[in-house]
Hints:
The protein has 581 residues and is an alpha/beta fold. The protein has three domains: 2-91, 2-Layer Sandwich (Gyrase A, domain 2), CATH 3.30.1360; 124-375, HUPs (Rossmann fold, 3-Layer(aba) Sandwich); 391-573, Isoleucyl-tRNA Synthetase, Domain 1 (Orthogonal Bundle). Helices cover 55% and strands 10% of the residues. The chain has helices at residues 2-22, 54-57, 61-76, 93-105, 135-153, 169-181, 187-190, 194-211, 214-227, 231-254, 265-281, 316-330, 345-357, 391-408, 418-435, 447-450, 458-477, 495-505, 507-517, 521-540, 549-573; strands spanning 46-49, 79-83, 86-90, 119-123, 157-164, 261-264, 286-287, 293-296, 304-308, 335-341, 366-371, 374-375, 443-444. The strands form four sheets. Strands 6-5-4-10-11 form a five-stranded parallel beta sheet, with helices on both faces. Strand 8 (293-296) and strand 9 (304-308) form a beta hairpin. The longest helix is centred in the C-terminal third of the chain and has 25 residues, at 549-573. The radius of gyration is 29 Å and the shape is flat.
Amino acid sequence: MESEAKKAAQAVAAALKRLAEERQTDAGNFPEPIPGLPPQEELGDAAFPMFPYAKVFKTNPAEIAAAVAPLVQEISGCRTEAAGAYVNLFYNLPDLARMAAESAENPDFGKTDGGKGKRVMIEFSCPNTNKPLHLGHMRNDSLGESVSRILKADGAEVVKVNLINDRGVHICKSMLAYKEFGGGETPETAGVKSDRFVGDWYVRFEQWSKADPSAMERVRKMLIDWESGDEEVRALWKKMNDWAVSGIKETYRRTDVSFDRFYFESETYLQGKADILRGLEEGIFYKESDGSVWVDLAPIGLDKKVLLRADGTSLYITQDLGTAVARHKDWPFDQMIYVVASEQQYHFKVLFYVLEKLGYSWAKNLRHLSYGMVNLPEGRMKSREGTVVDADDLLNELAQMAKEEMKNKEKSAEVENVDETAEKIALGALNYFLLSKSPTKDMVFNPKESLSFNGETGPYLQYMATRMTAILSKFEERKEEFSGIEFVPEKLNSASERRLIKAVLAYPDRVRKAATESDPSVLTEYLYDLAKTFSRFYHDYPVLNAEDKETGVARLKLVKAVLEVMKKAFYLTGIPYLKKM
């Protein structure tokens, strides 16, 4: 609808200019006409306020609207009415209907050019190799994957990257516990998914360290040995990291999350140390009496931050600094987006500042896409206590619940592969729920609510798409009845059809807005509104059994357009499309 709004604004601008010429008024400083929406849809598709022009014409806005409305109608060819101080314009419905029908045939419909020529690198997921992905990671993955797809749809060149946190104190905890108590056990002999196997040893360490205070000191010693290249420590580290990463990648495949490049902290942290030592030599940073290296953050309203420990080992900030430098060398980006929880806002303020202090001009284009926490109805999850909900367990539970819901609704007999369908319903439920709120908001995930086939959920959207698919399938069975019938857009003339046409044509605007704001909830809201609008239309107006064949063909074109837009938006939000469910 953006193009129609622009045309309308151009027509209003031309009408105002003509009126100014007729009245011999200087139109040089006219504010640009900005369309709004009338309070009720029956009052028009766009409303242009005349208040900004009262001083120019030296008269009240209502009088200006009355004079401008007929001129706008003459210029645009659209019905136009003056409503108080507003000029209300009704777009040409047959033209809109034709545009909506054509959108279904255009694979590029919805793609915009707001990001054209822009190179964007987006980092998300970034798991630790001491535990499997959990529900919190799932929001990160859903958000990162969706924003990446949306930015691509907006014309940007996007590279998705993942930083595997494969070194540090937390990694050594699971390593030490396994070394102490593992006895050579493997994921295969234990019958446990490999990342879950490693995570169990992390929980075991936390339990052990409460009874043995020396455990933590041994972990620190192990980290020093690792950084010194101790062969035995490195061998154990590689074995357990391979277990963790292979299991995590299985979950990525299951959830349709992918990356263009993987970075590993173990490969980039030395670059960070080198830069910090350079900064120390140049007087950018300073050293404390214990040998640790710090940065003064007073210029950005903060205190100070340690960049290297006294023993010379790295911290997160050290590693992230080195990783950022390595990435820009690999692929010089115009913008870098970090999808990381809101708990790390301080960390990224410091990181971006330190990079700028080190002279990296591209640091001003780094952005933290902060998102809120995901909790369960019973409260916050804690990795150390083993109370997190593993991503695989959650998906298994959701898929089982989806199967039960299908049986209750007697739907399972209609699908070819119940397990595969249930898995896709589960993923649709999860992604819709995780993306349906603005990223900055915390949320409480309720599995049962997310799987409802009614209301604002992923399964509801999937179900509505199956209804549209069924209509198109029935048309194929009855195709001969409609042989030779042309598409007549004038047949789509009801208020319900008008709403649906406008909803279809609003899709590119929603993509652009979602990209500009890096907010997939713009599209989940759009999808729900589109599905509701279709449901009302379908309730009131038969398609294949319409009053005449021309009307049936016209409505069928509209249904096809709605379905194609839904499928495109499904892809951008990670909701699997199902033909049956």
